[in-house]
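quick one, 219 residues, struct below
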Amino acid sequence: MKYGKPSFDQSKLNISSDKNYFPISWLNTQGFCEYCIKLEYHDEIKVGPTKAMLKGTSEHSALEAKFLEEAEETTFEEMMESSKTAEMLSREMWVESAKYGIRGYIDEIWMTPEEFVIIDDKPGQRAYSSTINQVYGYCLAFKDLINDERRIVASLRERGTDNIFWAAPFDTRVENATIELVNRVHRLLEGEEEFIPTKNPNKCRSCRFNIHCDVKCQF
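---
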């Protein structure tokens, strides 16, 4: 497998759109509790990162540094073309979709002659619906970026290991559901729908915004 670090001309990616962009990671936040998006990005409440967030950032940086020791700089187009006959791998690949108004970095992507495997690294080995939504968001943006009929597979991997503990094809049914979810987040941000808080007290207990939230669960 060849390791590649694609370089992008950002001016070519930032094409016009009738939507504002939001980070694909917000699909994870939305699945955890929509009210977190309201508190942090609508009400602009500032809170510090949790220990888990700091650890995740540190581990991501270490993985990226190790990857760059073997990676060769290339273009996205060259990687796509090479992957038609050989396996390619890249980390921290930027994807952006003007059509859907989403953007973000894919942790890792495997390109093979048969398929594209989109990988999101997460702590632990449990596939929550919110983390699944996030990796589906990366698949949606990636599909919008390419013109290729190869299948796309969404995967979750235990951070710091090779253990892919969940994987599923990004098929038409999933794609349509992801588009609807993305559109819901846009409607929330545009004030067309109300933010719905979680009813799970365990989420409230662990939320870094709980002291600022006026609708939190009782615990």
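Helices lie at 10-13, 26-32, 34-42, 51-68, 76-82, 129-145, 172-189, 201-206.
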